[in-house]
């Protein structure tokens, strides 16, 4: 994706406001939304209230599209999903809204995308089996410009036209859907505008490792788009299968759609039981399907990693870009007189104050030892004019990582630590295959990069119609993300312990951005690659590529049946099958 100077662009928007450049509120909010969106980072987002809270756009009927190759190797073309699924005669889409189809789709997400990888952005426009859980058929249904299921936020024009290679065409009207009434709104001071502003909660985040990049939808027990599982969690976040073909009958598949389970304990148990059952049933290989997984709870992801590699620590190196406000919060939050040590905490509010990234006692240093003092955590190297903390890692032996029902209990202990140290590695790295569509982000990225570091190979499906390498992990690379509400909460909670000068700075974090947005947040923990930590390059993981070992395109049979995807992946990894790009050496 092209680079952008966000600070300069926001300053430009401010200058435009001061000279009354925008004709209306919608134009201003659209410019702001697209500017932040061009950061192409799922942990950086600002959804203005008028743009994303009142009106969305959709087509007058479902118009899902797929990218289909004849054999998974030949460059694919765009087709209508319904025609492919029905296995009726079909013709490829040659033009959309008068432009060459693939170019149109590639350009669509330059205005907004949560991934820095263009092939990942391309994939989320298309149908994916994992999307059926949310009744979604791809972002193209919503014109690719928003994250409401099958709806978009940016006005796409009055219709969408498709021209097919056989000369036929299809034109669908685009409609606005009013999601909240504007009937009595005359201006920004109208009662309805005031009452629609979000109420502000002052509680600190329970854990800074939660999911912030994507809105979470509760799923039913049934799993649309998938066959009957061998095992599944009640919410469908994790489920397992066995392959049936003679050539892959020794292969299991563990699908992890999301790391935001209803119960982290159940998530852990389903993974543990499925791995054990697969081994007992004679399965010697396993595919980890992380398709459409944009992250979630870090501890659930890291525990799953521990179930496969219980003796090798996860790669959780991270740092925080310091600001004056962060330094103030670090000074206050690390003061034992204000925030007691864990052993002296007796209420949930105190534990919430302790479990913050600016408390030097909360994390470990890069060697997994305690920081000696605030300075050893706070004052890390300076790169490209920016100040950073020292490299930090998570503490998996902390008391809050337990299921003992105490006030700080996270609900699980991490496999490989404490009472779960008796686990053994269930499969060698050569018998594990990571399967993605490039959208793996956040907590998903953390576990996937750690698996790859242990020698696990990866295969990626889809992407733009070219024969170059594509990334298996194209999403956000940060270990922590905070909503604006959580940032405001921290500033408010700790300002009572600040000096008058410090309060002036913390008071800059006001409620207005919260009131005028439906969803807003930022990354506060850059994930770092181990090789960059050792070399001292200072380069964030967000700036590094993680190319897949093998790339395949989807075929029509894969669109109809997800098991065809798994069978194709197994055939390439262990059966000597040919990849469209790359390949696997014999282990």
TrEMBL record:
Pfam families: PDZ_CPAF_rel, Peptidase_S41. One of its GO terms (molecular function) is serine-type peptidase activity. Residues 251-455 form the Tail specific protease domain. Residues 61-182 form the CPAF-like PDZ domain. SUPFAM superfamilies: ClpP/crotonase. One of its GO terms (biological process) is proteolysis. Gene3D superfamilies: 2-enoyl-CoA Hydratase, Chain A, domain 1. PANTHER family: PEPTIDASE S41 FAMILY PROTEIN, RHODANESE DOMAIN-CONTAINING PROTEIN. This is Uncharacterized protein.
């Amino acid at each position: 994706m092209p680079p952008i100077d966000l600070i300069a662009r926001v300053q430009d928007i401010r200058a435009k406001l001061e000279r009354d450049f925008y004709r209306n509120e919608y134009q201003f909010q659209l410019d702001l939304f697209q500017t932040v969106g061009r950061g192409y980072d799922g942990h950086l987002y600002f959804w203005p209230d008028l743009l994303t809270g009142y009106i969305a756009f959709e087509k007058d009927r479902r118009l899902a599209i797929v990218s289909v190759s004849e054999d998974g190797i030949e460059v694919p073309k765009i087709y209508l999903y319904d025609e492919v699924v029905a296995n009726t005669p079909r013709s490829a889409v040659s033009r959309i809204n008068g432009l060459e189809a693939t170019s149109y789709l590639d350009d669509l997400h330059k205005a907004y995308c949560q991934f820095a990888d263009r092939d990942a952005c391309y994939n989320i426009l298309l149908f994916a089996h994992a999307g059926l859980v949310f009744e979604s058929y791809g972002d193209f249904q919503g014109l690719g410009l928003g994250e409401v299921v099958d709806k978009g936020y940016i006005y796409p024009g009055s219709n969408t036209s498709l021209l097919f290679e056989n000369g036929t065409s299809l034109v669908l009207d685009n409609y606005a859907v009013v999601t909240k009434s504007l009937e009595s709104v005359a201006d920004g001071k109208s009662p309805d505008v005031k009452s629609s502003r979000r109420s502000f909660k002052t509680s600190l985040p329970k854990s800074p490792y939660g999911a912030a990049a994507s809105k979470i939808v509760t799923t039913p027990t049934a799993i649309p788009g998938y066959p009957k599982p061998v095992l599944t969690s009640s919410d469908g976040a994790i489920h397992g299968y066995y392959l049936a073909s003679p050539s892959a009958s020794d292969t299991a598949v563990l699908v992890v759609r999301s790391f935001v389970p209803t119960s982290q304990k159940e998530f852990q148990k389903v993974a543990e039981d499925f791995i054990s059952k697969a081994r007992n049933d004679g399965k010697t290989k396993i595919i980890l399907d992380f398709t459409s997984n944009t992250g979630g709870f870090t501890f659930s992801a890291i525990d799953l990693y521990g179930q496969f590699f219980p003796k090798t620590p996860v790669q959780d190196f991270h740092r925080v870009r310091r600001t004056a406000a962060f330094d103030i919060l670090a000074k206050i939050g690390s003061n034992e007189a204000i925030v007691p040590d864990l052993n002296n905490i007796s209420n949930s509010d105190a534990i919430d104050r302790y479990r913050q990234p600016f408390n030097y006692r909360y994390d470990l240093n890069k060697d997994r030892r305690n920081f000696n003092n605030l300075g050893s955590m706070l004052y890390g190297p300076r790169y490209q004019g920016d100040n950073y903390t020292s490299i930090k890692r998570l503490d998996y032996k902390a008391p809050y990582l337990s299921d003992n029902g105490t006030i700080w209990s996270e609900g699980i202990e991490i496999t490989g630590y404490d009472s779960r140290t008796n686990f053994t590695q269930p499969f060698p790295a050569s018998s594990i295959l990571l399967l993605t569509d490039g959208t793996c982000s956040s907590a998903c990225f953390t576990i996937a990069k750690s698996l790859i570091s242990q020698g696990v190979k990866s295969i990626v499906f889809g992407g733009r119609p070219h024969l170059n390498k594509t990334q298996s992990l194209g999403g956000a690379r940060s270990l922590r993300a905070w909503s604006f509400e959580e940032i405001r909460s921290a500033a408010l909670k700790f300002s009572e312990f600040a000096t008058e000068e410090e309060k002036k700075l913390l008071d800059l974090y006001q409620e207005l951005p919260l009131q005028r947005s439906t969803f807003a947040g930022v990354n506060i923990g850059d994930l770092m690659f181990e090789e960059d930590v050792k070399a001292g390059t200072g380069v964030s993981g967000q700036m590094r590529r993680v190319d897949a070992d093998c790339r395949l395109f989807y075929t029509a049979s894969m669109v109809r049946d997800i098991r065809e995807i798994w069978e194709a992946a197994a055939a390439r990894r262990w059966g000597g099958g040919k990849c469209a790009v790359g390949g696997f050496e014999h282990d």
